Amino acid sequence: MNKLLILRAVTRIYETFNLCKSTHFNTSQLNLLATANHLIAACFNSKSPANAKIKTASIIICYLFNGIVFSVHATDEHLNSTRHLQTISPLKTALHLETYLGGHSTNLANKAALSFEFGQRNSQHVCHITTTEEHLMQSNNLLENINLSEKYFFFDCQIDNDFYVLSNQYRTYAQVIIKQPDINFPMSMHIEAKLVTIDGKLLNVTSGDISLKRK
């Protein structure tokens, strides 16, 4: 049996053991890794040829366990990177927008912008699309903002006393498909969004193709 190969295995398992200690793995994982480490070291130190198969098996176990450990480590890293996105409250409200209520010029991020207001028939519920004129022209008829990733397009809604917005603390998004006018239908917008209040209440927003021609 190639002692150099076993030595590399011992070094590898030792490094992994130290990694586990530094990344707060649980006690059972550390104990298992320590046992594998000791087994490899014992096989390496033994001079008996009868231990060749045990050495080989130990190395296989070592590398398999290393794969598991690093897989868990990678999963933990992924969870840590998304942990700031909090769980949304099960209290959900649905709003289906039906009418265009008008628009006006405004400013967003120190740039000229447009604001469009939409509502639901027979209610005071309203939503606002705000985007810079430049971003609107360059959007290829699709406005998107996921977890506040786009600073030139915002979407918000007000239902009674609740104000729903995009957030980088929760999983939220807004998508607006702009449909250009033709001979049969004026310019329109199709809206989908998932917004949240400051205390975690969720709002699902949908619409059909809403004409931007006020009635």
Number of discrete helical segments = 4
The pLDDT mean sits at: 75
Give me the count of strands.
10
User: Strand-residue fraction?
Assistant: 25-35%
Helix coverage percent: 25-40%
Instruction: State the order of secondary-structure elements, H for helix, E for strand.
Output: HHHEEEEHEEEEEE
The global form is: globular
Structural class: alpha+beta
Characterise the protein shown here.
Helix content is 35%, strand content 34%. It has 215 residues and is an alpha+beta fold. It has a five-stranded mixed beta sheet, with no helix packed on it. A five-stranded antiparallel beta sheet has the order 2-3-4-6-7. β6 and β7 (162-164) form a beta hairpin. The radius of gyration is 29 Å and the shape is globular. The model is unreliable at 20-25 and 68-82 (pLDDT under 50).
Describe the structure in brief.
With 215 residues, the chain is an alpha+beta fold. It is 35% helix and 34% strand. The protein has helices at residues 3-22, 27-45, 52-82, 133-138, and strands at residues 92-97, 99-108, 111-119, 126-132, 142-146, 153-159, 162-164, 173-179, 188-196, 202-211.
